[in-house]
Design brief:
single chain; 158 residues; 6-stranded mixed sheet; 6 strands; 37% helix
Length: 158
Amino acid sequence: MRKAEIQMQETILVIFIITIIIVLGLFVFYRYNLNALEQDKLEYEQIKVYNLLATLPNHPQLQYSSLGNSENAFDTLRLLNANLDDLGEKEVTIKQIYPKQDDVKCTTKTYPDCNHYLLYSKKFSKSKNVNIVTTPVSLYFPLTKGYKPGLLEIKWYY
């Protein structure tokens, strides 16, 4: 009877160890899949930002057009009243980079003595990281009928 009890205890111990190994394997598999999912989400958001960066200069609410022909520039008067749809956790700004001016946000009262336009801003408090993507753009000033260089900047939070 003593030998049977020892074999029963060994069997229970082996089953217990195998169960622990299976549980640890499932936990590692879960963490791996969770990290892969987060990486896919980050890549998807990055693709969305680059798509926005490529299509925003052609947005009809923001683009300067002359006699029905679209020019390759942002109309600064239209930037003052820009109403972009929900873009997620992002901040979209356009900055005039030359000639250098004091850092003044453009509103209807400060225009044209300003140098940056805030088109969209939404940030939740839980966001820890930020990526910034920029591209040069041309700004058209209807009051002076002139062009100045600018910088389109998209900050996205994750």
